[in-house]
Amino acid sequence: MKRYPFARMVISAAFITIGLAPAMAATTVKVEMQDPSTDEGTKSMQMKLDRDSVPAGQVRFEATNESKTLVHEMILVKTDQDPSAFPYDSKKEEVIEAKVKSLGEVPELQPGKSGHLTVSLRPGSYVLYCNQAAHMHQGMWARLTVTAK
To answer: Which CATH architecture has domain 23-147?
Structure first.
């Protein structure tokens, strides 16, 4: 029986390299949550994304509450609906979350704080919104389109 120590070493190195190769990196979306306390130029609630479209796959949302006074959050849903059509509790002034299928969220962020959410997204239309009292209806939401790779 012939032995090929060099070949075995090369094959072993290849398997180790493949096993240690990093997974496909997630596409990053930067999310800024702003309100009139953010700066003089901000006149209303808004959620700003640094891109409005990403390829399908892993997506990392890096959310920052740029407010100086208010708590904000970021909730992600897959939907073609306009956010004004989301089930809404007018007394609490918030979306009824039990009736909307959330794919994840960056929960309540204090002013100046950041958080992140990483999810695997399929092609389609998505909405990100803040569900603090009255924030979404005052404009704190954004659309995201996920395209096929």
So the answer is: Sandwich (2.60)
